[in-house]
Amino acid sequence: MAQAKQETERKYAAAAAEGIPWLPELTAVHPVASLADAGMQELDAVHYDTEDLRLTRTGASLRRRTGGTDAGWHLKLPLEGDSREEIQAPPSSQDVPAELRELVLSRTRGAPLRPVVRIRSTRCLHRLLDADGDLLAELSMDAVHAESLLESGGHAVWTEMEVELADGGDPALLDDVEEVLRRNGVERADSPAKAVRALAEAAGLPQRTPKKRRVLAAGSAGDHVLAYLDRMAAKLRDLDPAVRRDTPDAVHQMRTTARRLRNCLRSYRSVLDRDVTDPIRRDLRWLARALGAERDHEVLNERLASGVRELPGELVRGPVAARLQAWDVAQRAEGRRRTLDALASPRYLELLNRLAALTDAPPLRPKAAGKPKKVLVKALLKEYDRLAERMDRALQMPPGPERDAAIHHARKTAKRLRYAAETADPALGKPAQRLRKRAKAVQQVSGDQHDSVVAREALLRMAVSAHAAGETAFTWGLLYGEERATAGARERQLPEAWARVHPAARRKALRG
Fold first, then answer.
1. What Cα–Cα distance (Å) separates residue 241 from each residue in 12, 59, 237, 293?
2. Cα 390 from Cα 493, distance rounded (Å)
3. What CATH number did the domain enclosing 228 receive?
4. Average pLDDT, whole number, for the chain?
5. Residue 37 main-chain phi, psi, to 5 deg
6. DSSP state string for 269-321
7. Range in 189-193, 324-328, 484-488 with the lowest mean pLDDT
8. Is residue 370 assigned to a domain?
9. d(CA 331, CA 33)
10. 253 and 161 share a domain?
11. Long-range CB contact pairs, 17-21, < 8 A, 24+
12. Element (H, E) at 441
């Protein structure tokens, strides 16, 4: 079973002939009290990637390393700033472990992995300790020899330094250490990882991923849409390993990202060719629905469990907690199965390839070159008009299932308007920001009303099951009544929330 941890480190360029005469000065960095020599290590790592280096180009790395204290397979995935998530597996085989293959699938998109570079390092290790002898960080000086395993071959030799923060350490320490290093002529390395520099110097590949060729003028409508799609496609890709490992909130984030992508392609059909984007939209809708089983259950279970917790003890009659737990286990397992089945499907792999092709070679329409205040505003106003039609119709309907369904449809339209405004935000500024925030408020009020409808349906089923088992249904009925009251309150709040979006002045503000 693979083990995961977060590492935070910085790399620095260092000349082998200079040695490390500046190390004693690091004791001036608070709270470093001493440096302990931790000896030498001989490390030998073979890095794996696709033929076209899809891992390296997305900031990830996969290696099998011998030597040191953590020999084995190491998958490193980028996080924010100087941090990466490192997932380790035992060195039990020369083949990439199946679990790690799955965790890089959103990056490889099914392309085979192969050895691309071998890196051997002689490491001189020092530990930065505080006054109590506790580890603050590790500083290593590495003499590196890299050998390209690609067809082009090639070798490279260099010396570099790493400063890695101890688990739970304060990132500010890295800034203070770097200040001392810079005063002594030590600068940050150009490459974020050894494999990147190795491929650059040994195989002649660029150290940094080339920026995509600009196909539109900066600031054009299409340029803004493509920038948003690039961010969301990368986020979907990066969330994949977290979803597979059942990281908290990962399913929710991935589902939301799929919806953002889908809605962007829908709202800005004037910018991108529908013959290309419509199949992608259908696949994104399928993915969001597959993830929805697990996510919707998370939301519903927390709502029901919270309702039970908030009841006075004397109102909880019968085996309420046990029945809720049994239902939760069964539904959670089914939702998890649907999520993993979706991520293992050929359709998901095809979606990843289509998204990569979409952002690499976007199918632009003539309006993509237009001015954002014309093209993006027109798209926003279409979404706004659609929301106005649905919301006005819903608010005029009498209470009941048909009104509940109408509010639900209006809620989804409010979400589309919110995401469309989010895409246009960098181009349109405050008008788009205000519209996004107010559409979100409408979405949240109507969403809580819908969640109450769903909760009541679940509570009714719970009550029926409890009664059939000879249990009292009192508590389930009580919760049903509370949810009905909550839905009524949200319905009364909805006209006010909608009024903040509805005025005709909103159209004027966008056009202005």
1. 29, 14, 8, 19
2. 17
3. 1.40.20.10
4. 91
5. -70, 120
6. TTTB-HHHHHHHHHHHHHHHHHHHHHHHHHHHHHHHHHHHHHS-GGG--SSHH
7. 189-193
8. yes
9. 53
10. no
11. 20/124, 20/141
12. helix 430-468
Q: How far apart are alpha carbons 80 and 509 in whole angstroms? A: 36
CATH number at residue 185: 2.40.320.10
The whole domain housing 158 covers 3-203
270 and 143 assigned to the same domain: no
Do 331 and 433 belong together in one domain?
Answer: yes
128 contacts: CB under 8 Å, gap ≥ 6: 26, 32, 35, 135, 136, 137, 138, 139, 177
Q: What is the pTM (predicted TM-score) of this model?
A: 0.91
Which tokens is 111 given? 């392309």
Among 61, 67, 209, 203, CA closest to 146 = 203
From 157, 174, 203, give the residue that closes a domain.
203
Q: Is residue 208 part of a domain?
A: no
Token output for 291: 């993830």
Q: How many structural domains does the chain have? A: 2
Compute CA distances 202 → 11, 117, 129, whole Å.
Answer: 19, 9, 36
Q: Are residues 378 and 496 in the same domain?
A: yes
Q: Per-residue pLDDT tens for 124-144?
A: 999 999 999 999 999 999 999
Spatial neighbors of 213 by CB under 8 A, at least 6 apart, are none
Nearest alpha carbon to residue 443 among 385, 510, 501, 399:
501
Provide the 3-class DSSP secondary structure of residue 405: helix
